[in-house]
Amino acid sequence: MISKILIANRGEIALRIVRACRELGIKTLAVYSEADEQSLHVQLADEAICIGPASPSESYLKADRIISAAEISDVDAIHPGYGFLSEKAEFVEQCESCKIKFIGPSSEIIRNMGDKALAIETARKAGIPTVPGSDGVIPTTEEAVKVAESIGYPVLIKAVSGGGGKGMRVAHNSAAFHKEFEVAKAEAEKAFGDGDVYLEKFINNPRHIEFQILADNHGNVVHLGERDCSVQRRHQKLIEEAPSPFLTDELREKMGNAAIQAAKSVGYTNAGTIEFLVDEDGNFYFIEMNTRIQVEHPVTEEITDTDLIKEQIRITDGQKLRFTQDEIVINRHAIECRINAEDPMRNFAPCPGTIDLYYPPGGHGVRVDSHVYGGYQIPPYYDSMIGKLITYGRNREIAMDRMYRALGEFIISGIKTTIPFSKAIMQDPVFRNGKATTKFIEEFVERANMDTLLQSNHNIE
Q1: Is the separation of the CB atoms in 106 and 89 below 8 Å?
Q2: Residue 292 contacts residue 272 (beta carbons within 8 Å)
Q3: CA end-to-end span of the chain, whole Å?
Q4: 188 and 257 part of one domain
């Protein structure tokens, strides 16, 4: 039985894991950088060990230091959260060789599904629709041009080891292709240490819809419905909701079955996400699998009454899933807004600094996942997300109205945040009518007077 878990992450997800472990009666060890000494997860964990300087490359990405902390503190398992080492097969191999349980799939599955070109080929062989594209990695620009012309412009150039929109570029014609191809490779090399890329047909105005799956070590696989993540900026998600306002029951069933088939085809275990693009006609295409917990997992939790972190731990502990597909009932709607320390008036520039006043919203149907508090110093070294606001209700209209109300109550002073931007979106007719595609933010900014819009939705400076 797992009795002690090292949390190899920081911020709100680290705190989320601490809370789940406490409810399960499992002790926690937080590892932290020098910049995160005052973070809430460090204060609330049972034990804490500093693993290095502020830079992620010298702390949260130092696998050997994390393994050493685990061995010194005699932990049974490591939960990676998302980002950092969560999808690094080499780190999982180290855990496996040291007999430390990794809360996630095996290193082999992470390696196979983390290679996006290989993942697409695997899905294709399993009979799951995929976006037309290259057969794996394209080594040279000359070969890439030939593939792009055979697919037809516009094409999407994607990093094999990518994520978060890095190493992803669109070429709308042959004249732009050479530049975008080289830029994508350079971005991928810098972000992931791997410059390999592949090509996909660029689908105009799609919806980004992903299915949450859980798979135990006994052959049982279920999905817990979908999340619509179409509201994103530069491929970074800003607002997520579940269920999707676009899917019909028939399409939902088809995509859910495809997600389960994708997981079964690779012998997947633990929590994972199968991501699809859906075009205007309801055609869906597999694009990738995330072999970890997602930032937006709370919306799934709220519509299914399932604690996904606890389920991850139970699966790693060898337990069977406690429910079948027929027992998963969705009778609520949930929306999540990411709260980022960014200034929307300066092209969403990061805004590290000290939070003078922090007052989170409350009331029925409101959840806040955040590690910050009044007096907290936001370091400049990490992702700008400082929290997530989730609202839910028996239908989408209630969830939207509740989100607008909750955003209006959310006070964070001393820094700029995306709160007023999200608040404005909650009143936008395109969003409210469920018509948002991945182009929504771009179109929203174009048609809105940003200065007036943000001022009218401003809470406090």
Answers
A1: no
A2: yes
A3: 48
A4: no
CATH of the domain at 58: 3.40.50.20
pLDDT in tens, 98-150: 999 999 999 999 999 988 778 988 999 999 999 888 888 998 999 999 999 99
Q: Phi then psi for 142, rounded to 5 degrees?
A: -60, -45
Give all strands (DSSP E) within 39-145, no chain letters. 47-52, 77-79, 101-102
**Of the listed 16, 292, 332, 367, which one is catalytic?**
292
Domains held by the chain: number: 3
Distance of CA 312 to the CA centre of its chain: 16
Do residues 383 and 425 both lie within one domain? yes
* Residues 264 and 406 grouped into a single domain: yes
Quote the CA–CA distance of 356 and 412 in Å, as a whole number.
7
109 close to 291: Cβ distance less than 8 angstroms: yes
Angle between helices 89-97 and 63-72 (to 10 degrees): 30
The tens digit of pLDDT for each residue in 370-412 reads 999 999 999 999 999 999 999 999 999 999 999 999 999 999 9
Which residue among 103, 121, 143 closes a domain? 103
The verdict on whether 292 is a catalytic residue reads yes
Instruction: Give the separation between CA 167 and CA 191, rounded to whole angstroms.
Output: 8
Q: Is 243 helix (H, G, I), strand (E, B) or coil?
A: coil
The answer to whether 304 and 328 are in contact (CB under 8 A) is yes
In a domain, 403, yes or no: yes
Coil vs helix vs strand at 196: coil
Residues 48, 54, 56, 59, CA torsion sign:
negative
Q: Are the C-beta atoms of residues 155 and 174 closer than 8 Å to each other?
A: no
Task: Find the domain containing 99 and state its range.
Answer: 4-103
How many other C-beta atoms can be found within 10 angstroms of the C-beta atom of residue 107? Answer: 20
Rounded to two decimals, the pTM is: 0.89
Here the CATH number for the domain that contains residue 261 is 3.30.470.20
